[in-house]
Amino acid sequence: MTAILSAEDLRYAYPGEGPALCSLSLQIETGRKLAILGPNGAGKSTLLLHLNGSLRPQQGRVLLGHQPGDYSRRGLSQWRSRVALVLQDADDQIFAATVAEDVSFGPLNQGLAEQVVRARVQSALTALGIADLAGRPPHLLSGGQKKRVAIAGAVAMEPEILLLDEPTAGLDREGADQLIAVLRQLGQRGMTLVFSTHDIELAQTLADDVALFQGGTVLAQGGAEAILTDAALLARAGLRPPMLVDLWLMAQARGMCPAAGPMPRSSEALLALLFAETPPARCAV
Amino acid sequence: MAIATLDRAASLNPWRQRALAEKALIGFGFLALALLLPPWPGALLVSLAICAFTFFGARVPLRLWLTTAALPLGFLASGALMLVVEIGAGGVALAPGGLVPAAELAGRAMAATFCLIFLAMTTPMADLFGGLRRLRVPGELVELALLTYRFVFLIADEAAAMTAAQRARLGHSSRRLWLRSTAMVIASLLPRALARARRMETGLAARGWHGEMRVLSTRLPACGRRLALVVAVQLAVVLAVLAVVGLG
Lengths: 285, 248
Description:
The complex is a heterodimer of chains A (285) and B (248). Chain A has helices at residues 44-51, 73-82, 99-109, 114-127, 143-155, 173-188, 200-206, 224-228, 231-236, 243-253, 267-274; strands at 3-13, 19-29, 33-37, 59-64, 67-68, 83-86, 161-165, 192-197, 209-214, 217-223. Chain A has 285 residues and is α/β, with parallel strands linked by helices. In chain A, the strands form 2 sheets. A 6-stranded mixed β-sheet of chain A has the order 6-7-8-3-9-10, with helices on both faces. A 4-stranded antiparallel β-sheet of chain A has the order 2-1-4-5, covered by helices on one side. In chain A, helix 3 (99-109) packs across helix 4, helix 3 (99-109) packs parallel to helix 5 and helix 4 crosses helix 5. The longest helix of chain A is centred in the middle third of the chain and has 16 residues, at 173-188. By secondary structure, chain B is mostly helical. Chain B contains 9 helices and 2 strands. Chain B has helices at 3-12, 20-36, 39-57, 62-84, 99-122, 125-134, 139-168, 175-206, 224-247; strands at 85-88, 91-94. Chain B has a two-stranded antiparallel sheet. In chain B, helix 2 packs antiparallel against helix 3. The A-B interface holds A 49, 52, 54, 73, 76-77, 80-81, 84-85, 87, 89, 91-98, 100-102, 104-106, 108-110, 114, 117-118, 121, 135-140, 153-154, 157 and B 4, 7-8, 11, 124-126, 129-130, 146-147, 149-150, 153-154, 196, 199-200, 202-210, 213-218.
């Protein structure tokens, strides 16, 4: 696998505070969905801001492919065209008077022709399922809609990598489910996704890989299954395995399902494993 | 009435899809007539005409219009009252000759207010910003207005949330506490607004912002026949006023 974006030995401290990142290294692989998983205040957002050049490390470096990040004006423009960032609070990102105008902002900054920008806006709005909101002003949108507008604004730039800070924070179940479906689709289209979250269930549902975060550094990075089934490792980051994984491991220990095989990602998948050989008896009504 | 309600009404108005030029000609055209023509019968005719456009043309709901108009009309009434009465040695009395200027001022201001309400109820701010850009108003001014407009809603939301939280902890249970709590909200809004502005800067920079906020806006073509109709009504108002003034 080739790392499309990586961090080497990053160190960063906000003025007057202790280190937010300390000797942090991380690899992001092409076409994968990476969850940056850790408790609040572990430095996840600070890392994302480094990955698109918004913050400059005080030590270490960020690499785009094999090239070290270029912090000149032109270099940053190219960097941010390839690596888009969606902030946690969509209100921090949406500024224009209507949804379509806001989404057109990024592509116009890339210097694209008006015709191309129009097409990009339309396809981004359609991809996020919000084409009907194009003319709406942002203060008349719900939280979930705002979130999708913010993501559309990044997707319209057609980046290789999309960074999302706590994408489901503040969304209700339905909004979160819709968002997860959209992110999956973007992943299927070949976009590399990196999202920070403290929600281990989200990591389990969506991520191919997980980087476990604690105290400004990566405790472990690997496939989602390897990380999320290692209860001792998770405990070091103050986390517990997802309930589904807990149940799966317990069922394995009791010989109720095969001891090998991929981790179930949904309740249905776990049920299918549990009742693979003996289908559940039908309830008599 | 909350500003968001007004903007929502404008977004949903059937005339939202009309060209900005047409609505601007109605709103600003009649506004100019209200200011330039002699208040009698100019103010009356302008008020009637603009109300006809508001209710029969743009189909603005009367209830919404009344709640919107109540506040400015209240200000207007209290202002006009000040011109009518006079406080002297003998107490409060009717000012000699105050009635006519008060009525003229109130009539003119009322007509002008109706014109602005027409614009506010048919044209969301978003469309006005697009129009300002096309008129080549300097970009910095439009961007400043745009960000101010955007922040009004964000900060109002934050203020409302903080006030509700204070109320929940009895922060508004007496006059003195109310004053103290409100002062605290005001004091904490500034740093919050600054922090938000800083985060917004990061968000904009992440989308390649380098000092200019360009966005694509859609432009609706104006209809020449409708423009001509509006001008005709405006001319008719002018002629009617001139006729009445000439007869008088």
